[in-house]
Task: structure prediction
Amino acid sequence: MPQFIKWLGKYDGLEMYADDEDDPQLCVRKIVRKNLAHFLNSTSIITAAVIKEKIVDEVLQQKFLFYRAHWGISRIPDCTSRIWKPLEQSWFSFIQLGTVKQDLHVWFSEKNPQPSLEEHRKYLLSEPV
Result:
C-alpha cells in the first residue's frame, strides 16, 4: 500500500479546486472503508492482492481523476503552458510552478483522463521502487 498512499498524496490539495463530492481523500477513504467492512464481514478467504485490485478498480472510477490543470496565459493549453502530470508531480509542487504572467486553469474533462486509467492502474498495482 505504500505506492497507493504515495499516489494519493499527489492529489492532496486538489480538493480546493474540485467539486465537494470529488475530494480525492474523501472518495478514497469511503472506498477503503467500504471494502474493509466487506472484508471483515466476509466468511470467505480473500487475499490482500484481491482486495487491493478491487479498491484500485473502484478508485479508477472516481471523477477526481478527470480533473486537469495547467499554468498558462489562456484557458486552452499551448506550447508555453505548464501542464499538471499527476503521476510525475504532486498537486502542491505543480501549484508552485506558476508565475506572475500565468493563470492557473483547472477544469473537469469528461474525456479520458490524463494520464490514462491504465497508467494509473499500473502505477497503483506496481511495487514501490
